[in-house]
Amino acid sequence: MRTLLIGGARSGKSALALRWANERAKSVCALVTATESDAEMSARIAAHRRERPSHWHVREEPVHLGRALREEATSGECILVDCLTLWISNCLWGMPSDTADYPTWTRERAEFLDALAACPTDVLIVTNETGTGIVPANAASRVFRDEQGWLNQLVAAVCDEVYFVTAGLPLRLKPA
Q: How far apart are CA 85 and CA 118, in angstroms?
């Protein structure tokens, strides 16, 4: 079963994914994409580490998410991917630059979608909905918003279940 949890920032997506992973499986692998880019992000990562059960297997993978998913899927564990939003940013702007790295992003996106479609174990995926706000004022933000929206559509098409999460509450979108 492939399940996508999509919602805005602080909507409760990650907390719901943690709870569902605990309920669905005795053994869980968390594939996490965040990097400690500054003090505030380090604090967020530390909070997520404290929230996860200590017996979970955790793999930090900021860029090569498809490869990591293929490798971890052989263990039979439920896999929690948190989150696609940071992963896109890591792929597009992994090196300090004013321009997006489309070759890396295109390659990594294709690898992830292939791995997800072939995954033989349960997968819970967390991602942000970024298209419900205003049109960003700068080109890089518009590129990010567009790529996030297109990726969300592609992942939702592969997933068996899709939930929109707001205020900690899941609204089932797929299957209808």
A: 22
Which tens digit of pLDDT belongs to each residue from 21-32?
A: 999 898 999 999
Q: Which of 48, 55, 57, 64 is catalytic?
A: 48
Q: Which domains does the chain carry?
A: 2-174 (3.40.50.300)
Spatial distance between the Cα atoms of 159 and 82, rounded to a whole number of angstroms: 15
User: What per-residue string of b and e applies to 134-152 under the rule 16 or more CB within 10 Å gives b?
Assistant: eeeeeeeeebbbebbeebb
Cis peptide before 62 (omega within 30 of 0): no
Q: Is 55 a catalytic residue?
A: no
Condensed to tens digits (0 to 9), the pLDDT of residues 121-141 reads 999 999 999 988 888 899 888
**Range of lowest pLDDT (82-86, 136-140, 152-156):** 136-140
Overall pTM > 0.90: yes
The amino acid at residue 144 is: F
CB 36 within 8 A of CB 30: no
Under 8 Å between Cβ of 163 and 3: yes
CA neighbor of 165 nearest in space, from 32, 26, 16, 53: 16
